[in-house]
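Severity: low
Component: inverse-folding endpoint
Summary: output formatting inconsistent between runs
Steps to reproduce: submit the following structure tokens with default settings.
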């Protein structure tokens, strides 16, 4: 993958870029940096190549091999097309689906992608207008295409964009396919770039505009399987405010709600039209603090008690509900996951599907409440690594075993409600949520009350998910090294007590903390080093424990190139810490379960563990995070 020229002096590497890049804007950026002799910036832009992460390619839009621009999009598309042509039988005839959102350069990147596939003889199913992310995986599955590409950076800042790849089954690519594609892209790095013409793509006889056909099928599939009672939906007096966060969602949300027979939303006027600069929000992510403030103001002015949102590419969904005291409850991603799971289970039962046939999944960093629900109700549950590429493929495997694909979700407000879209789908989630809220409203109930019913039945779960901005990968690596191997000898006295696991095969000694926030650790899983052990609290403190490979092998895949550690504690706590695949962040996901529904005790434990993450594990102040 690493072309030999990446070892060149930076000035020669810049010249290499200029010999390949035909975009005047990005060429100009490199030329100005060369003229200014700004080697530090040139190194950041050119030395390392953009790589596939949890969502394909995603980076800031500017010049350089490490960024997203016309050259890197063309190169990625050439490599992807070459691999698909070899790996998928009849790939050219089956075709590729290409769509894009409203971000800067998205339309151009989509057309360049289509052009690269056309050069290799592919039929291209194209969405020429602004689209939502779920339209691509839906079409890949419905059309039996060989693969799909969606140009989007979801809820990232305005200067970012992304290149999201779906495989022939309609799910995002995952190992080993992603690794094979990456190698193919590397093999195509030094090819002559011939796919620069983005004009006239739609006029090519091998390009088919599938917008009308696929969108009709998308709405019909969702409403046909999930709309409980259109007539009852149309009679609801429920009112709700909706915002697409300056994204593409509004027309799709409007049509989906109508397909369910639900009344239209109250809009947030300033945020309804697609705007790639996202002028009214600091970050175009409904999860961010303050992102829903404008929608709440509209709701307050209109006397509406429910606020709903999609992120800019409409694959995520968020909700907030006004409480009796006038405050707003913004549901967490896990709370919404619980609400959807209960609603989907009820819909499956109404359809005559037995609980034993239903399958639901969530990511390993999401709440264990779905697992508790499965234990109580008897449906099949599985957790997976982070990312819908893993969840969708797990659900497909369960479907092949005869299970009904009910639901999948991740805590980052992503929900897969039915198997027509094997990825998160914020517009379908919106309609299902409004339908549930309307049913509850008719009974004089609230969504928050519905959630409380689930807590009463399955136990109380409270979570705190956040992150530390960590732009220096080396420092991030040292933080994780300290967690798994312990501190340097001169600072050992200030550290918490630690286990000692001597691995006979690897020859190293792992020294994970025995407590977090004062609570004894009961379980450890490290997917970086390949270590997993339950009941670690039984390990004696006096002497190191020698463990063999088979005694501590994780059930999940191990990836030495990224950091991910999970701890469970005897107070019902679970903490997962990982690096982000798309952002310079050290993320953590923390949850405490109290089976006695003692809210105050759970809150105290959670606060103690949050403080422990910052002070004991990450040492945020000391590390300048």
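Observed output (run 2 of 3):
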């Amino acid at each position: 993958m690493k072309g030999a020229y990446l070892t060149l002096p930076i000035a020669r590497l810049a010249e290499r870029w200029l010999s390949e890049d035909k975009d005047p804007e990005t060429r100009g950026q490199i030329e100005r940096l060369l003229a200014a002799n700004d080697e530090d910036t040139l190194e950041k832009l050119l030395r390392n190549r953009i790589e596939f992460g949890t969502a394909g390619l995603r980076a800031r839009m500017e010049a350089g091999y490490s960024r997203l621009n016309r050259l890197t999009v063309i190169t990625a598309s050439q490599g992807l097309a070459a691999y698909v042509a070899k790996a998928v039988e009849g790939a050219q005839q089956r075709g590729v689906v290409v769509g894009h959102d409203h971000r800067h350069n998205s339309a151009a990147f989509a057309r360049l992608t289509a052009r690269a596939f056309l050069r290799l003889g592919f039929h291209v199913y194209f969405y020429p207008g602004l689209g939502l992310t779920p339209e691509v995986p839906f079409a890949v599955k419905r059309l039996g295409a060989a693969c799909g590409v969606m140009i989007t950076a979801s809820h990232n800042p305005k200067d970012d964009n992304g290149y999201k790849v779906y495989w022939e089954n309609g799910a995002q690519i995952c190992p080993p396919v992603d690794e094979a594609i990456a190698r193919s892209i590397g093999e195509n790095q030094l090819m002559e770039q011939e796919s620069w013409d983005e004009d006239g793509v739609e006029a090519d006889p091998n390009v088919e505009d599938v917008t009308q056909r696929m969108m009709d099928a998308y709405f019909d599939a969702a409403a046909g399987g999930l709309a409980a009672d259109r007539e009852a939906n149309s009679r609801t007096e429920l009112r709700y405010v909706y915002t697409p966060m300056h994204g593409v969602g509004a027309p799709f949300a409007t049509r989906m709600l109508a397909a369910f027979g639900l009344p239209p939303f109250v809009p947030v006027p300033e945020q309804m039209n697609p705007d790639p600069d996202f002028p009214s929000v600091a970050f175009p992510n409904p999860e961010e603090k303050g992102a829903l403030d404008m929608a709440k103001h509209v709701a307050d002015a209109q006397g509406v008690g429910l606020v709903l949102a999609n992120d800019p590419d409409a694959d995520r969904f968020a909700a907030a509900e006004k409480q009796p005291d006038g405050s707003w409850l913004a549901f967490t991603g896990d709370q919404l996951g619980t609400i959807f799971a209960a609603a989907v289970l009820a819909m499956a039962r109404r359809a005559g599907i037995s609980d034993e046939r239903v399958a639901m999944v969530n990511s390993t960093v999401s709440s264990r409440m779905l697992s508790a629900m499965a234990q109580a109700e008897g449906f099949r549950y599985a957790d997976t690594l982070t990312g819908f590429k893993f969840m969708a493929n797990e659900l497909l495997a369960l479907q092949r075993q005869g299970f009904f694909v009910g639901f999948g979700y991740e805590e980052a407000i992503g929900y897969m409600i039915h198997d027509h879209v094997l990825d998160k789908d914020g517009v379908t989630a919106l309609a299902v949520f409004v339908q549930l809220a309307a049913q509850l409203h008719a009974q004089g109930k609230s969504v928050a009350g519905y959630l409380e019913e689930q807590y009463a039945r399955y136990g109380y779960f409270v979570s705190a998910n956040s992150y530390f901005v960590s732009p220096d990968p080396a420092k991030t690596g040292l933080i994780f090294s300290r967690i798994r191997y312990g501190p340097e000898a001169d600072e050992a006295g200030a550290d918490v007590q630690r286990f000692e696991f001597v691995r006979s095969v690897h020859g190293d000694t792992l020294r994970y903390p025995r407590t977090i926030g004062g609570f004894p650790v009961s379980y450890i899983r490290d997917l970086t080093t390949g270590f997993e052990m339950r009941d670690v609290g039984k390990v004696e403190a006096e002497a190191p424990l020698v463990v063999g490979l088979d005694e501590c092998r994780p059930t999940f895949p191990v990836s030495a190139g990224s950091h991910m550690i999970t701890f469970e504690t005897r107070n019902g706590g679970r903490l997962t810490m990982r690096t982000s695949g798309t952002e310079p962040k050290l993320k953590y996901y923390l949850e405490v379960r109290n089976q006695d529904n003692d809210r105050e005790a759970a809150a105290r434990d959670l606060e103690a563990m949050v403080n422990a993450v910052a002070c004991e594990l990450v040492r945020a102040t000391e590390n300048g995070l």
